[in-house]
Design a protein that fits this description.
The chain is of the alpha/beta class and about 375 residues long. It is built from ten helices and twelve strands. It folds into two domains: about 230 residues, Vaccinia Virus protein VP39 (Rossmann fold); about 130 residues, Alpha-Beta Complex (DNA Methylase, Chain A, domain 2), CATH 3.90.120.10.
């Protein structure tokens, strides 16, 4: 790893998943932008101790570097940076059918990233690396047009790029979660042809670079790794008879209609759960934990467990199985994440978050290959 201290900005910052990953490789955050007020509360509460300057205010009490609305960002007021991180929303472009590049991104949130980068290039401070994340569906969004415009824009700005879909279940968290990552590098500063993606983490902690080798085994996971003590979860998160009946009836109706949708039930020995989403707070149907051995209805995950499922180290009420507290994600070499918002907001925030082990390993590879 290079000894130089690199700087990064965190756009569409959420609760700071990128911040955690980049901090783990020694990078310093100089600017962040997030519009959701509750996510901002979580972000500041958890990172002000790591990066106090990021939350500095002027005499009017306005943040200087912790921006709220990305549409209000003035590029000249953003400190120069080496790496741009961003989990931008997936929006269709109104393609004019001509350039299919920078101009076609106007009016979308990706344009804010592209415009900021363009301004920095024009003032002689091109960001070296762009580290971008999105849903897997971006690959085929609007018949592939959306991704095509994004890649054409990166090329127009002078960046080479590689993109890949990665699954969190291969990186040591018990969640089947696929996300698209785009890694781009400024060609005048970085002389490579492609970025070698990590596809998973082997049992010995080494990086797996070939998809075929995933079959040889990754860090073993089981859902009970994330469990708080059942003495806490059983009385507080068990679903009602009415809700449980509703879940079963809906699943049967969907089965008869050939839809196949419904609740998903897991137990502590399951290797992984389905993908947690921002709507989890509504009824928890995508991840229910079987409690038949206790003779009671299934339960939802607690907010603490939802965060652990994304790889955050959250102490909560401890662990059902104390040895889980010593794994790669939850041992004390990782920063503790504190939940400072309501249960509903916590579920939403974790459902929207990136999976920490995936982007931590990507951050390591960015430093190794591009910096």
């Amino acid at each position: 790893m290079s000894k130089k201290k690199y700087t990064f900005i965190d756009l569409f910052a959420g609760i700071g998943g990128f911040h955690t990953a980049m901090h783990s490789v020694g990078a310093k955050c100089v600017f962040a932008s997030e519009w959701d007020k509750n996510a901002r509360l979580s972000y500041e509460a958890n990172y002000i101790g790591i990066e106090p300057k990021l939350f500095k205010k002027n005499k009017k009490g306005e943040y200087l570097y912790f921006n709220e609305d990305i549409n209000d960002v003035v590029p000249s007021k953003v400190p120069n940076f080496d790496i741009c991180c961003g989990g931008f929303p997936c929006q269709p472009f109104s393609v004019a059918g001509l350039k299919k590049g920078f101009e076609d991104t106007r009016g979308t949130l990706f344009f804010n990233i592209a415009n900021l980068v363009k301004e920095k290039i024009e003032t002689g401070h091109p960001p070296r690396v762009l580290f971008l994340e999105n849903v897997r569906g971006l690959k085929n969004h609007d018949k592939g047009k959306t991704l095509k415009v994004i890649l054409a824009t990166l090329d127009e700005l002078g960046y080479g790029y590689s993109y890949e879909v990665l699954n969190a279940k291969y990186f040591g968290v018990p969640q089947n979660r696929e996300r698209l990552f785009i890694i781009a590098w400024y060609k005048e500063l970085v002389n490579i042809d492609s970025f070698k993606f990590p596809y998973g983490i082997a049992e010995d902690g080494s990086t797996i670079y070939e998809k075929e080798k995933l079959k040889e085994g990754t860090i073993p996971t089981k859902v009970s790794d994330i469990f708080e003590p059942s003495i806490i979860t059983a009385p507080n998160y068990t679903i009602s008879d009415r809700l449980w009946e509703g879940h079963r009836n809906r699943k049967e109706r969907n089965r008869l209609n050939g839809k196949g949708f419904g609740f998903s039930l897991f137990n502590g020995n399951s290797t992984y759960t389905s993908t947690i989403s921002a709507r989890y707070w509504k009824d928890g149907s995508e991840i229910l934990i079987d409690q038949s051995e206790l003779g009671i209805n299934p339960r939802t995950l607690s907010p603490v467990e939802a965060g652990r499922l994304q790889g955050y180290r959250i102490i909560g009420s401890g662990w059902e199985f104390p040895e889980a507290a010593n794994n790669q994600n939850y041992n004390n070499s990782n920063p503790e994440f504190r939940i400072v918002v309501s249960k509903k907001e916590a579920y939403r925030q974790f459902g929207n978050s990136v999976a920490i082990p995936v982007i931590k390993r990507l951050a390591q590879e960015i430093v190794k290959q591009l910096l």
